[in-house]
Amino acid sequence: MKKVGMLAAALLCLHGAQSQTVYKVAEPVEWVNTLMGTDSKVSLSNGNTYPAIALPWGMNFWMPQTGAMGNGWAYQYTADKIRGFKQTHQPSPWINDYGQFAMMPVTGKLKFDQNKRASWFSHKTEVAKPYYYSVYLADADVTTEITPTERAAQLRFTFPATDSAFVVVDAFDKGSYIKILPKEQKIMGYTTKNSGGVPSNFKNYFVIYFDKPFTVATAWRDSTLLKDQLELQADHAGAVVGFKTKKGEQVVARTASSFISFEQAELNLQREVGKDGFDITRRKAKDSWNKELGRLSVEGGTSEQVSTFYSSLYRTMLFPRKFYEINAKNEVVHYSPFNGQVLPGYMFTDNGFWDTFRAVHPFFTLMYPSLSGHIMEGLANSYKESGWLPEWASPGHRDCMIGSNSASLIADAYLKGIRGYDINTLYEAILKNTENEGPLSSVGRKGVKYYNELGYVPYDVDVNENAARTLEYAYDDFTIYELAKALNRPKEEIARFAKRSQNYRNLFDPETKLMRGKNKDGRFQAPFNPFKWGDAFTEGNSWHYTWSVFHDVQGLANLMGGRESFTNMLDSVFKMAPVYDESYYGTVIHEIREMQIMNMGQYAHGNQPIQHMIYLYNYAGQPWKTQYWIRQVMERLYKATPDGYCGDEDNGQTSAWYVFSAMGFYPVCPGTQQYVLGTPLFAKLTMTLEDGKKMVIEAPGNSATNLYVQQAALNGQPYTKNWISHQDLQKGGKLVFRMGATPEKTRGTQPAAFPYSYSTANK
């Protein structure tokens, strides 16, 4: 069969290309579809993503804007018109945006209002890649192209022959400023529009330089054009500059922004774009993506699998974003989204740890330890500047989701050998979380007094999602226990967190074999409906959250009556009908609908709490069921198409599940050194680690039918465990799976093969 390399994009367009076997991936970025997940809406998420034009973890992203100003669903695949091309920092539509301004070309009559300037477009004329975006705007007869750097970008507009070619700059409402400097062919301004989590002095400063003199230059406010006015501060400020163009003439805008100052924005532009032409910036951006995506090289999958893999890997590498800049002295500095000061050191943001502690950050500790170290330094800075660790930052603290899962990130990074940051400050911050509620319910631990005194957060004390909080606090306490041991903390302190890690037991109901809310007096809440979403749980029900005992799966199995009963309960998740009780919300939230329509029973992969559950068969001696269900999820619930996810993608987490699962293992319990084995997706995957070592994962004969692991060998020696260690992966080498079409029911069935559980390690 003919090899596929540079012809990747072309093959994807051919009839039947999904069955084409890929033997070599020359440029992984060309396999990415940034439109994956964009066919979404409030009532049903197929990802809730937008086509981010960005570099990995870049400070600024760009996007085509189809939604109205302020609409979190800023790009929807089903839209007909584009209103502008927006610099964005939006991590999700639910969190919305900040640091945003837009540009839009128009021709003929000068139109600057967001509705009047909007142009029809078609996906048939749209090219959407991580490093480059292009689209034809039919009403203006203009093609717009964008290519990014980390803090800057170039936009290129190809105009028709006209004396009325314009570019509208929109600094958006809620407080903005614009200034036009015609002699310098420059526009400068700032935007203060945000969705929360910012200090009072927050501004995003931007500069734009055009490569063609202006024939028209004027500011506008709201719906009013201010003739000949070149500077304006208003609730909603904007600018229009005009040109006389020949047919096919290209006008290039070079732009950058800063959260620090206009001077820093100029420096960011000079440092990252300089005198580079558009095509040079595009090539550099493409090279950057190929370098990072190429750290995982796959062979022997279908075109569809390769595209889905690299599209998911792209999403995994977007967040958290770099919220720091390099000053004139080449020092790393950041505008603090907590106290409004400009301070030294790293800062990262736009991340919800409730989602990303599970697989995104463990992926960084494995593949990008230096980045992980910088993120840890950023967490220490966040604590110093605000008094709290962030749990959902965008850009500062946001009141969203539950838990104190920053402990998991910190412990996992330190225990896996990542250094270069102030671990003592971070440990102090972790301890503060375990004893205090925060100024927001998402910071610190809501209900902490009850949790520490009773061993659980009661159902009847007006603390929402109490059972979910208890389970996550108990897991986080396990990671603190492991970190405390590594830091040689006092024995009493170590013992305290060891004991608290077992608090999950307090919510286990032996009658139903499920986790259940418990009242302050020690009685379980009644009536109890295990299919009720919310209430005691977070965006899920008891069947989803019962498995949130990442650190002690054997302990949970013992409570359920042993291995057989435990696996029967796991099986039940898939066998039950997708029934639900939405009464807590008063409406069917999109997460419920996504579970219902996926036809996998109560398995709700579209949300995070249950995503690790498939791997738990490994703890009970039935790894072949893990292998079966992994492939079911990968084949049925993921595709590199606009409707390609089965729920919110959420800062890379749902993508990281796919990436890890394709590699053949998954970090069920961050804070341990183990990855639980599944079934590799490709015939060969090569991991290039940060130090240059290579770990090769081979599965010759792998296919849609040969999905079951028969035998495994590590560096030529038989490998019988259901997990592989972080240390073994870091050494490099070769892990080989022999695959087959039928379950191998003798491998991995004995306790000696099972992954770590606290109860087993501490008998």
Automatic annotation (TrEMBL):
Its cofactor is Ca(2+). The keyword Hydrolase applies. It is an enzyme of class 3 (hydrolase). Residues 264-740 form the Glycosyl hydrolase family domain. Residues 1-19 form the signal peptide. Residues 31-258 form the Glycosyl hydrolase family 92 N-terminal domain. One of its GO terms (molecular function) is hydrolase activity, acting on glycosyl bonds. Its EC number is 3.2.1.-. The keyword Transcription regulation does not apply. Keywords: Calcium, Glycosidase, Hydrolase, Signal. SUPFAM superfamilies: Six-hairpin glycosidases (SSF48208). It comes from the Bacteria. NCBIfam families: aman2_put. Monomer. This is GH92 family glycosyl hydrolase.
